[in-house]
Amino acid sequence: MILKKRKIFFNHEKEERWLNEMAAKGYHLVHYSWGKYTFEKGTPGEYIYRLELLDELPSHPESKDYIQFMEEQGVQCVATSLRWVFFRKKAKDGPFEIYSDHASRLKHYQKIAGLLGLVCGINLLLALVNFNSVIHLSDSTFVLYVSLVNWLAVILLAPLFISYWRRINRLKKEMELYHK
Amino acid sequence: MSKGYEHVPLTEAAYYILLALYTPRHGYGIMQFVREISQGRVQLGPGTLYGALKTMQEKGWITLNEAKDSRKKEYRLTPLGKEVVMAEMERLEELLKHGRAVLGGEKVDS
Predict the structure, then answer these.
(1) Cβ separation of A73 and B28 shorter than 8 Å?
(2) Residue B109 has what pLDDT?
(3) Residue B13 in contact with residue B89, Cβ under 8 Å?
(4) I want to staple B81 with a disulfide (CB 3.0 to 4.6 A). Which of A78, A167, B28, B77 is the partner?
């Protein structure tokens, strides 16, 4: 049985949690494309899902090499979306965490924070530029709407960026003491 | 003092990965070895393992084995990698020795 759902996530950890909740109910993600999730009905709790942001697009040789390495460890690449990858592993093979130490976890957080910061920054810039035009143009309804979309993106993404920023700093502090 | 001394201290994961590669192994074999030798305490995440293997290759501590089965990569330790392990063991021994000297006969709970 196939189940399709449309959803938009800004927070990859919430998305991951949702996918694992679906998997616990027996709905396993098999395909993803632009907010459209396709699930296949199977045994509840059969898979654990993890999302990862890669350095390069999945078509890049480096990413291909990595995804092949993952497959050799029994980790299946279910879908990709830009630089994001949806991985899953059979739950009976034990716990599944992509990163097991602070250093590699920190690198992943930094990658995500960098992406969020970039998208947030571009939107803030556009919002300000458009906002400026609204003041100076006579017929500015359209520009006003565009500007509002940019502001909305900034409002949604900025708290997420800050939360990653805090997490990065917390990890760095831990790393001064622990060699995990 | 051995040549590998400038490369220590290693992380626990790096130390165990190098130990695992005293015998040539695939990625999966490394994970299994580390899990077994640490009695399940150290569980390497595949992403962490991949990053560590790449960096170690760049540093010349390990190298790819000329593969018979070309699909799966097999890694092994280089002479420099061996030096690094030795240096780390020396360091760990020194830490233990000093700890014991200070604590004297006090019993360590295990």
Answers:
(1) yes
(2) 61
(3) no
(4) B77
